[in-house]
Amino acid sequence: MSLSSCCNGTEMLTCLELDLKFPDVDVNGSETTTPARNFKAGLDVNTRKKFAFAKKKAFALFVKELQATVHKPQTMHSDVHWKCCGLEFMDLTTIHKHVAAQHSNEVLQLTEYILEEFALAAATTVPCTEPSENSGALIDSWNRCPIFDWLPDTSDVSQDDLTSEPGEVLLYYCYCDVKDPQWICNWQRAMCQLLHLTGKIRIAAEGINGTVGGSKVSTKLYISTMLSHPLFRDMMCLEDFKTSDGGAHCFPDLRVGVFQEIVPMGIEPQKVSYKENAIHLSPKEFHEKVTKYLSEVSKPDLNTILLDCRNFYESKIGQFQNCLAPDIRKFSYFPSYVDQNLELFKDKTVLMYCTGGIRCERGSAYLRSKSVCKEVYQLKGGIHKYLEQFPDGYFRGKLFVFDGRYTISSNNDIISNCCYCGIAWDEYKLCSTTRCCQLVLTCAECRRKGLTACCPTCQLKEVNMSPESSQQHFKEECECTDKRPKIPTENN
């Protein structure tokens, strides 16, 4: 495998993107056949960190070049395997072991190539306040530091540790003022690549919102690095990271980007700020409020609303008892839902909740801006944190998550049904019509009968679709979408 084949196009991280500088690394004086361990032995601690980052990047590029993908249009995922030395590898662990055992010299050569590219691209040095200096100055100057300065030290961590299963999935967010979202974006991408994390991270001037999966070693390093960064260390704590069983396999890839909002509500953050959010209740406090609410739910003059801020397909399979779950498809519809149902919220105490808490931040701010509610509260940490303390509490069914797992279960209740035969069922599948992205609750028996689409319209298209037409792009025409009111009006 040639170096150019590994480093072409977007696969090669540029020094401009990572802002890395290696003035103390002399890669020209080393032989490409020198084992990496001996090569590292002659470097100081700081340079070893830089070498470790470049080596892990080289290893990842080498492995990616061996990847072969078979796409399955009717599922969310593709079958991925790797081919090397006439052999086929079906999982990351085995291909990593093979590359480490048989191709260490090629990886080292690619490592040196990456270091050379970084060093050649580094023309100037950006002044940066050292972490040991004035902390106030550091808070304002972090984006003038090379991104490498804020990456975790993985020099003593093996590839197996960074890719081992079982792993976990992290869910977190932080609303804060971000002066340089693009720097944070580049830093997050570099860190996730270094730690072999997959997932989705949104950065904006209003903060960061992420869900990533990987080995437990990688997620631990990720959390500690986040909590040590001056932008987040006074805004976040360990409790802000929700964890669940999973790993890198839960996401098809890594997507990191800069957006206007860290969760798309469709309203500019300057108009509705997270700073105007509701009163946060701990899971225990929220549980107590819900207990009181449920004890009074049969009263005709009930003045409390337990409001689910999520989408209909989330609340359909799991929700708090006696909640109000709006039949909306996207969170960006929530403001219009509030506007259309202001009378419902008039003089009411509202208890809001969502998956991890982030949608309640600006969702509650929007509701409060209407000045109709008596009080507005939100569940801190969302359902995720509530289930940690009350796995058999008032939330029944499964928690929907936006990754390949679809759901997290804390109890055995099934509150939804197969859309065809009506039996209790809560396992989602994608609509079998290639161009439809609806989630479908169809049981195993109905699927065996070929009932795999979200509605009769899509089911008919699936039957009549020719191989040629399945490759074309059609505008979605789905009864599930067309028949559902975009903004439902509740009965007071």
What would your notes on this structure say?
The N and C termini lie far apart (68 Å). The protein contains 20 helices and 17 strands. With 492 residues, the chain is α/β, with parallel strands linked by helices. It holds the Pfam family TSTD2_N. InterPro entries: Rhodanese-like_dom, Rhodanese-like_dom_sf, Rhodanese_C, TrhO, TRHO_N, TSTD2_N. This is Thiosulfate sulfurtransferase/rhodanese-like domain-containing protein 2. Residues 303-391 form the Rhodanese domain.
List the helices and strands and how they pair.
Elements: H1 3-7, H2 15-18, H3 36-41, H4 45-65, E1 67-71, E2 78-84, E3 87-89, H5 92-102, H6 104-121, H7 135-141, H8 159-163, E4 167-175, H9 181-194, E5 198-204, E6 207-214, H10 216-228, E7 242-246, E8 254-258, E9 279-281, H11 283-295, E10 304-308, H12 312-315, E11 318-320, H13 334-340, H14 342-345, E12 349-353, H15 358-369, E13 375-379, H16 382-389, E14 395-400, E15 407-409, E16 428-430, E17 439-441, H17 444-448, H18 456-464, H19 467-470, H20 479-482
Parallel strand pairs: 5-8, 9-13, 10-12, 12-13
Antiparallel strand pairs: 1-2, 2-3, 4-6, 4-7, 5-6, 11-14, 14-15, 16-17
Helix pairs in contact: 4-6, 11-16
